[in-house]
Amino acid sequence: MGTYTIHIIPPQGSKTTTIFKVEDFVLPRFEVTLRPPPYSLATDSAFSFTVCANYTFGQPVKGNLSITIDNTKSRKCQTRITRNITISGCTDVEETAAKLQIVDCNVYSLKVNAVVTEEGTGVEAMASTTTSIQRRLITLKTLYKDQYMKPNLPFTLKVRASRPDNTAGVGVPVELCAGGQCTNLTTGVDGLITAVLPNYQSVSVRMKALNSRVNMYSSEYYQTLSHYFSPSNSSLLIYAPEETLKCAEAGQSTSQHILPVLFSARDQPTAAITVQVVSRGSIQYTNTQDYQLPSGPLPISTEHLVEPLPPPLPGTVRGVINLTISLPDTASPIVKVSQFHPPTVSSGAR
């Protein structure tokens, strides 16, 4: 213990001197942790905090807990509640929203301080935290959307509803409006809303969660749509798989995959379609093949349609073809697949 001086003299250059002090360090005999709820809402009727006091070797501490909850307001809205209780290890402390004046005083955060005094010794340890009072229960964010709204083909949009702790917003009623039509949807167990827009004239999508309450902000979503123009109303759309593609089997250099492609064509029973796979800045696979373009149903779920799918435009056919692509081992972890039929249509998916 004491003060030490270190001198460093390099072969060339000036001397450098550093002084430092070594002192006794006593490990804490016990520590206190304070855990707030995952998130707190302005509509909650009460707020619970978990306080734990444990020795460094894991055993619970017995003593007195003094916990203070402050609503961080001032003047007549200032509320600071202190409670003293006996603790042995962990305990939950709850206080009502009414006493903390959450609604009346528009409280946005709570500051909590916990002090544990060890029984018999009077040794103290403390912990503190600040928790925000959320006023938006649900956030709507884009998970996936087609790059373009294309003639004769539907546009797919996937939006995730999440809670303040980023868990899925399950069973949330949502109103969706696009192309002059509105419909009510409900998020699934994964918090997802899948919307299929069949109207090429749609220029934007609006959503609003329908479960907003007093003293809470509404949850809204807005997305503009980019349109792909084709004089012949012909277009291609890769129906990209949601799951991760499997790599090649042991001993094989490539893996085969089926890629559904939605198409709209005018007076064209066949087409030479080129598929190109790009990864790591280089072309990993390319192939051109003739395909029949028969009219047929599209692989979309009618329950996701915002409005009924209109019939194909006069003189056009609409359907789906399955393209086979070969992915080499070097095409990872992300690939961009492009397919085109020059000169009228092109499409891409990542």
TrEMBL record:
- In this chain the Macroglobulin domain maps to 25-94, 146-197
Kindly give the InterPro entries that the UniProt entry links to this protein: A2M/Complement_sys, Ig-like_fold, MG3, MG4
- Which region is the signal sequence? none
Indicate what this protein is called per its UniProt record.
Uncharacterized protein
What organism is the protein native to?
Petrolisthes manimaculis
